[in-house]
Amino acid sequence: VSFKKSRCSWNKLRTSAGAKTIYMPKYGAEVIMPLIFAKAGEVNRIKKIGGKDETKHFLNNLGFVEGGEITVISENAGNLIVNVKDTRVAISKEMANRILVSVN
């Protein structure tokens, strides 16, 4: 994920496993982040889905489409249960890191 330079401060975030560090804009810019960082109960918009074409196609069939809404219901060891198109779906933390979202 890349960000254009802007006049904002940056937050340093770590994944739940503590393995990766990313920097995200704090104010004045749209925050785009991996789904793994989304707060439970907060409605997010899917911006991009990474991974192999077959994985993207599979997720697309489940309702994971760019521009669609997604809400994290719960998290356990980085794995998520999400609500997408009125359906609850469990996804791994690896997959959650490939789905980029913005807060609605």
From TrEMBL:
InterPro entries the UniProt entry points to: Fe-transptr_FeoA-like, FeoA-like, FeoA_core_dom, Transcriptional_repressor_C
Domain of life, per lineage: Bacteria
Keyword ATP-binding found: no
One GO MF term: transition metal ion binding
Residue span(s) of domain Ferrous iron transporter FeoA-like: 33-103
SUPFAM superfamilies assigned to the protein according to its UniProt record, in alphabetical order: C-terminal domain of transcriptional repressors
Key words, A-Z: Iron
Iron found in the keyword field: yes
The protein, known as: Fe2+ transport system protein FeoA
